[in-house]
Protein: tRNA (guanine-N(1)-)-methyltransferase
Amino acid sequence: MRVDIVSIFPEYFSPLELSLIGKARASGLLDIAVHDLRTWTSDVHRTVDDTPYGGGPGMVMRPEPWAGALDAVTRPDSLLVVPSPVGTPFTQAAAHELATAPHLVFACGRYEGIDQRVLDDAATRMPVREVSLGDYVLFGGEVAVIVIMEAVTRLLPGVLGNADSLTEESHAAGLLEAPVYTKPAQWRGHEVPAVLRSGDHGRIARWRREQSLLRTAARRPDLLAGYPPERLDKHDRAA
Ligand code: ADE
Structure:
């Protein structure tokens, strides 16, 4: 997968050199380039923003530098991702969609956002996804891009050592995962649940399923409400 990131703060993206994303880049599974939006300014001050039409607080990112950047980095097969608090929620399903794209371009907005015509114009040539990480406002899209890149790259074939991690984890099946434990069996007076040490794989699977349902009901009733009823069996209903 090829990824181009455009931002006024290219320094934000050094974490993408670390850990599994760094390894995926080194092995050639992932090719990431970060670009400074100010490359495509033409005035001495390298201005990227101006006051909003209609008034109001803050500044809006001007269209011309973004046009230069997107004309330079997009290709016929690009998908443009714009993190924004007004986007659609970024979910595991959205991560799966982005993971199938051969080329992702991320446009990082700052201030009050990017002039809407930039996105409208791009949408005449490529799919554009405005995505929000949640109902809160960040300073800009940079940190959101790092989050989205983690969620997407771990879905690319060959990036995770153990692909089973993907099927077992929280949100893979629309529920939260059960709690996990490792050695020692006793620690500060807390004990690992006996069932996990029983060696009985049937009982362990049953216990994990129950914990997963209880956790989801307690913490994310919205997820449980949207869970397909045909995926619940009689044990689940009892739990
Ligand atoms: N930029 C600013 N706030 C954001 C949010 N909540 N999600 C994604 N991008 C953002």
In short: The mean pLDDT is 96. The CA atoms of residues 34 and 221 lie 39 Å apart. The domain at 170-238 is CATH 1.10.1270.20 (Trp Operon Repressor; Chain A). The chain has two domains: 2-153, 170-238.
